[in-house]
Amino acid sequence: MKRLTLGILAAVLCIGLLAISGKGQNRTIEQPVEPDQDVISNAARPTVGETHISSYFNFTSQIITKAFSELGVISADDGSTVRVLLVQVIPGDQKHLAANGIAVQVTRQNGRRIEGYVDGDELDELIGAMDTIRKMDKSVTTLNSFDGRYRTHGGLEVANIERGGGRVGEVRAVQVIPSSGEIVWARALMRAARLEEFRRLVAAGKDKLKDLEPKK
Fold it and tell me: pLDDT at position 15, please?
């Protein structure tokens, strides 16, 4: 009887160990989770230059005024949001030195927000690039797939990428933290056709820039 009991216990223990081992094996072949944001590495660091707008945030011993008006918000298909603002940054009381343009805020589902800037003199090129990118299809290449991307001087990126056999639009904002120099980013994903919504907000910002010009 004792031998039978020991045998049963041994069999149960063996089954338990096999189950644990099986779980470990399943875990090793799971697809990796694609990071949402803030993944900075030496191998894949987003390219970002200093815009006229962002350059003023590095000033010290001077009051910097950042004024803004909301142009609109897009609820992306991945649960994130894209908010576009008309922005004016003024050093001290020198309004004639104001930097004008737009800010693009990408907020992920976890609430973390990244804000990138585009100077006013770059908006025409950005709008033109989006007109091309959002319409891109398989006719652009004889190869099996493609990605189309455009990046502004400040690192804002708009792309038409392939995902799951379909076309996906991407808006990626890149921000440099002035106090540390750290580069952070976040992106929003939506159907490629919805890049037209983002284009309209950028174009609205360009049209309103004239309202920020100094009165003569």
Answer: 45
